[in-house]
Amino acid sequence: MIAKTRILVKSQKVIVLSSLLLFMLFFITIFAPWLAPNDPTAVNLLHKLYPPSLNYPLGTDHLGRCTLSRILYGARVSLGFATLIFISALSIGLIIGLIAGFKGGWVDQVLMRFADGVMAFPSLLLVLGLVGIWGAGLKQVVLALIFVQWVYYARIIRGVVLSLKEQNYITAAKISGSSQWRIMMSHIIPNILPPLAVMGTLEMGWAIMHLSSMSFLGLGVQPPTPEWGAMIHEGKSYIRTNPSLMLYPGLMIMLVVVTFNLLGESLSERFGIKRRS
Amino acid sequence: MDQNILNVRDLHVQVKTKDGLSTLVQDINFGIEKGKVLGLVGESGSGKTVTSMSILQLLDRKNMKIEGSITLNGQELNGLKNKEMRAIRGKDIAFIMQNPMNAFTPVFTIGHQFIETIRSHTSLNKKQAKKLAIEVMQNVNLPDPAKLLRNYPFQLSGGMLQRVMIAMATCLHPSIIIADEPTTALDLHNQLLVLRLLDKIRSEYGTSILLISHDLGVIAEMADDVIVMKHGRIVEKANVFQLFDHPQHEYTKKLLNTRPTLQVEQQPITHML
Amino acid sequence: MSLLQVKEVNHSYDSKKLFKWKEPLNKVLSNISFSIEEGTCLGLLGTSGAGKSTLGKVILGIQRPQQGQVLFQGYDIYNSDKHTQRKLRRDLQVVFQDSYSSVNPRMTAERIISEPLENYEKLSISEKRRKVISLLERVGLSEKDLKKYPHQFSGGQLQRINIARAISLKPKLIVLDESVSSLDMVTQRLILDLLRELKDDFGLSYLFITHDIKAAFSISDSLGVLEKGELIEFYHSKDHFFSSENPVVKQMRNSILVEHPRFRHFRPRSGVTNKESCQNI
């Protein structure tokens, strides 16, 4: 058992390391209230812009709030909502992709032309536009991101379904008397999972980036809720005097996005899957 | 001994696995004389392809250990550098593989690939190379060579493509052609055309042929001598008539017994021919 | 009544072009009629592109022909009610050429073979397992292979698994679509032996689609020759293949490589003389 684990760690170093890191981040997300030394929203103007100390391990911001606590709580917003976006976009994409791939014909045409329409816009621009229409706010940003993202899942899944449909074993299953539902559940879905795992991890990084970008622009998370993008936004006025206010949340975003991408890359290498360009 | 074009002595190929070295073929000894056809028979996994790949030095040297001596016209091939081997492959040894589709790049015309191959081994210019290509294709009875050269690989049938491939393989008059299951992907009629073509080249240019096949029909048709392989070893080596009439080894007998009953009943055969 | 009757089947593929009227229809099957009797094997010979595979699909009920009927046990497989269709489907199975692509790479041998059983028979887990084991043993594999995945089998073994799946419901007719064509000689022979045994044991009928005359000959009772979508010859006894005067059949016959050097087409036929003789057929 131990030897086996060692071999796994050795051969899949990147996958194991990045999974560990992500696991830690999710741990922080869940247990932030117990880990954070201070209340992230408690304003204390007397303590503003403190350097790191025992009370405030990473110092305080312009309103005297504990930076470390805000970063830990910020992980909740970033990772939590990114997961929400991921799951919703995946579910919508999965259903639409399966329908398009399986039904074919005009259903496929309509769905895929709509997806093409969404994909024709640069994703950030489309999100900005939608948020502009719906108004600023976390809910709107999340909805807009889901709306932009599901098409990528739908595309990939449709493609896989189409190529699987040509496989002899699907024909053989039909001839064995299997229903459409059964073919879907036991032949199609298991073969979709590897590309989905790869895509999912890569898109998680994408979602976190965009969520933070929106908050940085002041369109997403509204103060005083701690969020990394919003923290960078608030810290940018103090870039000359206290660059650390921007540095820490920036580093966190980088860390998370890079980890997700590394994981996705090595997973795709492992499964031999090409990802979207 | 010395009139052999190709000599393989004590060939032993091992592959590196998690649990150390694992042997793919061992104790392989044979030679091919000028203008002769040596047939190599065996089931899938018997080491036929590994043997041909080691002659061509196409095995992955990082994961394989290749021991023994392979000499072509007296020159040792085993251990030759990639660059030196590239000069030999295509010029002195030609290789014809099972699926001709894989041998051509789909994005270039046949002519482009044909001419490039000629030019990479000779000092001919484009025009001369094209002339040579057309000449060779005419020689192997390919219809309308000039037009064929302008086609893309997918526009030709498998049989046609295989014949173009043979034309390409022979235009530089190699001393030996290694044909690995050259007709397995073809239907009967095309199979016959391709085999006849190979035989024509053999008799006209004195090219030796190493013919690898699991099809006893192909071997019986073409070979002068036959090697039977099983589990990476040679179990029998004999003249083709000797082998089919008086097989020595048990495995050869078993192999011959797998032939369909078609020719056991003498009757149908006589009016088949 | 014949087990399977194919009546005047015509089929052409639609070109998928937007401007349909510009493309002539691609006729793949024209006026095909034949029948297969219970317990016999019909060999269907044809070169690549002769329409063999399409005909196989039509008979399997997965490609509705544009014209004509396919009657299986007296019922039209394309125009009968759902219930009958499901019953017919059970008696009609297939083994494809490419054994690797015919099985889901993520399933164990047990799951592959039990799929048809699960669809048609209500069996407990242990009954199902026992049945799968007996099927594995019937096709020359063993209980040890239950939990193996496709990549752990050789091509011949996988083809045995495909056969086990095909016979699991005790069908009446199995379509063998080039089922032995990509196997080496020895394996091919063993699979053909197995198929012949199963035919006798279960009273199966086969439609053996192939381009390999020797293989077709060794298993078929009757023979049909398909050329450019037409059934040009049909012999109730396969031996008539050798007396046919049809030019296509003659060419096929002349292309057979007999597996003995005495019957060579163009190399010298005796071992002693070494003169080059490039005689033509």
Task: Give an overview of the whole structure.
- The complex is a heterotrimer of chains A (277), B (273) and C (281).
- By secondary structure, chain A is mostly helical.
- Chain A is built from ten helices and no strands.
- In chain A, helix 2 (13-35) crosses helix 3 (67-103), helix 2 packs antiparallel against helix 10 and helix 6 (138-165) runs antiparallel to helix 8 (180-216).
- Chain B is an alpha/beta fold and 273 residues long.
- Chain B is 41% helix and 26% strand.
- Chain B has a six-stranded mixed sheet with strand order 6-7-8-3-9-10, with helices on both faces. In chain B, strands 2-1-4-5 form a four-stranded antiparallel sheet, with helices on one face.
- By secondary structure, chain C is an alpha/beta fold.
- Chain C has a single domain, classed as P-loop containing nucleotide triphosphate hydrolases (Rossmann fold, 3-Layer(aba) Sandwich).
- Chain C has helices at 52-60, 82-90, 109-120, 125-138, 155-167, 185-202, 213-219, 247-255; strands at residues 4-13, 26-36, 41-46, 67-72, 75-76, 92-95, 173-177, 205-210, 222-227, 230-235.
- Chain C has a six-stranded mixed sheet with strand order 6-7-8-3-9-10, with helices on both faces.
- In chain C, helix 4 (125-138) packs across helix 5 (155-167) and helix 5 (155-167) packs parallel to helix 6 (185-202).
- The relative contact order of chain C is 0.15.
- Chains in contact: A-C, B-C.
- At the B-C interface, helix 8, helix 9, helix 10, helix 11 and helix 12 of B face helix 6, helix 7 and helix 8 of C.
